[in-house]
Amino acid sequence: FGINRNRIHEKLLKKGIYAIGFFYPVVPKNEARIRVQISAAMEKHHLDKAVEAFVSVGQKLKVI
Questions:
Q1: How far apart are CA 46 and CA 27, in angstroms?
Q2: CA atoms within 13 A on the CB side of 8
Q3: Which pTM was predicted?
Q4: Which of 21, 40, 53, 64 is the most exposed place for a label (fewest CB within 10 A)?
Q5: How many beta carbons lie within 10 A of that of residue 6, not counting itself?
Q6: H or E stretch including 20?
Q7: Tens of pLDDT, residues 21-47
Q8: Which residues, other chains included, contact 57 with Cβ-Cβ below 8 Å and sequence gap of 6+?
Q9: Exposed/middle/buried for 58, CB within 10 Å: 0-12, 13-18, 19+?
Q10: Residues 12, 56, 39, CA angle at the centre, nearest 5°?
Q11: What is the C-alpha to C-alpha distance for residues 8 and 32, in angstroms, rounded to an integer?
């Protein structure tokens, strides 16, 4: 991933989704991971918002 893609978590936060990005050396070079936490207290509209944010950011960065 390039430098922009390493900042997916920052772009998600701007959309109201708190996510943690993991990069080298935590994961292998040229790979990255995003971690989110889901709670049983969340409702469908919360999950829908998260999915919409991931799709929007992922498409803008051309990772999906």
A1: 28
A2: 28
A3: 0.79
A4: 40
A5: 14
A6: strand 20-22
A7: 888 888 898 888 889 999 999 999 999
A8: 8, 11, 12, 15
A9: middle
A10: 50
A11: 10
Task: Name the residue among 55, 57, 63 with its Cα closest to residue 1.
Answer: 63
**Paired tokens of 49:** 């918002």
Q: Which position has the token pair 């991931």? A: 54
Nearest to 22 by CA among 36, 38, 33: 33
Q: What six digits make up the tokens of 45?
A: 């509209």
Rg of the chain, C-alpha, whole Å: 12
* pLDDT of 16 strictly over 50: yes
Residues in the chain, overall count: 64
Task: Supply 61's token pair.
Answer: 């960065």
C-alpha to C-alpha distance for 23 and 44, rounded to whole angstroms: 30
